[in-house]
Design goal:
Blueprint: H1 6-24, H2 30-38, H3 47-54, E1 63-68, E2 73-79, H4 89-104, E3 110-115, H5 126-131, H6 135-153, E4 158-163, E5 167-169, H7 171-176, E6 181-185, E7 192-194, H8 208-216, H9 218-227, H10 233-239, E8 244-246, H11 249-259, H12 264-275, H13 281-295, H14 299-308
Helix pairs in contact: 3-6, 4-6, 6-13, 8-9, 8-13
Length: 313
């Protein structure tokens, strides 16, 4: 039989109450307190408010271009070749306009997203990043571009990212996750896809974490984000991140054409139906924005920006 002294009983009672006291500290559970301390608590922003902040930094260089094919295929080109098609504010604005145009093009069946000059996208433009390098700017960027990409993903068309050249890195990899399929060019072994965010002292933005989980699962998402490894085509295929390899842009078009050879209305209905099951990702995107913002412009991110930002002499 267990004999407890009055003193030991008191200690036991205090220890047993400790978790309860921790849970109600400041009216929050430990999980809620952790998330509260980790996330953005600055000014809330609507989409239009965030847009007004970001478009102050429009640059003359860079664009996103739309080409409409008579067969109902759109080609969307990320065009900022001086920095391997890295995304800046001007390109975000262009993508917003293109997404709206595609939503009104009722004869569209599919779209291919690709990069100019044989490269897909190297992520975010560092010149632009340094201009908004603070949590408030990061939150505004997240709200603005995250909303645009979410609207693009919901378009009732079949979308493909064609990854070639240096590949899809950081923000470039994020953009591929809004597409229904990802194809990698197998013409060169140097083409990669990878989420390099942790090396920059940040986490993914623009809603890609939730989308990545839906593509490859929780465990592989953790590995991709923690290790920041660049995956070549074979490994990307094995992980489920990439859906196929092709040699040329023409091959990518042919690959997409086989997917969308059916009736226009049936194709759009299938995409819309499948998209219904992804609606929970909107909540994930908003939480991701709040977690991302405090890291953006933080000490680790600032050091990484200085390390990578080397203006041309």
């Amino acid at each position: 039989m267990l004999n407890l002294s009055r003193r030991s009983i008191g200690v036991f009672m205090r220890l047993s109450r400790a978790p309860i006291l921790m849970q109600i500290e400041n009216g929050r559970t430990p999980k809620a307190k952790y998330l509260h301390d980790l996330t953005y608590h600055g000014q809330e922003l609507s989409f239009n408010e965030a847009k007004n902040i970001i478009i102050q930094y429009l640059e003359s260089s860079g664009s996103v271009d739309l080409e409409k094919d008579v067969n109902g295929i759109a080609k969307i080109r990320l065009n900022n070749p001086r920095c391997m098609n890295a995304i800046n504010a001007k390109m975000m604005s262009d993508l917003e306009e293109i997404t709206e145009k595609l939503s009104q093009w009722t004869e569209c069946k599919g779209a291919i997203v690709y990069g100019a000059d044989g490269n897909f996208c190297a992520g975010g433009d560092l010149n632009f990043a340094k201009k908004i390098s603070n949590p408030y700017g990061g939150y505004a960027m997240n709200i603005y571009l995250g909303h645009i990409l979410n609207k693009f993903k919901k378009l009732p068309i079949i979308t493909v990212a064609y990854i070639e050249g240096a590949g899809a890195i950081g923000g470039g990899a994020e953009i591929t996750t809004v597409c229904d399929y990802r194809l990698m060019c197998n013409a060169a072994d140097s083409t990669v896809i990878g989420f390099a965010h942790s090396k920059m002292g940040i986490v993914p933005a623009w809603g890609s974490t939730g989308r990545l989980v839906s593509i490859v699962g929780v465990q592989k998402t953790l590995d991709l984000l923690l290790e920041s490894r660049m995956l070549r085509a074979a490994e990307a295929m094995d992980s489920g991140l990439v859906d196929g390899t092709v040699a040329t842009m023409a091959d990518a078009e042919a690959w997409l054409s086989r997917k969308i050879k059916g009736d226009l209305n049936v194709i759009r209905a299938i995409k819309s139906t499948v998209q219904c099951y992804d609606d929970f990702l909107e909540t994930t995107r908003m939480m991701e924005s709040r977690i991302f913002a405090p890291l953006w412009g933080g000490p680790v991110n600032q050091a990484a920006l200085e390390r990578h930002f080397k203006p041309k002499k």
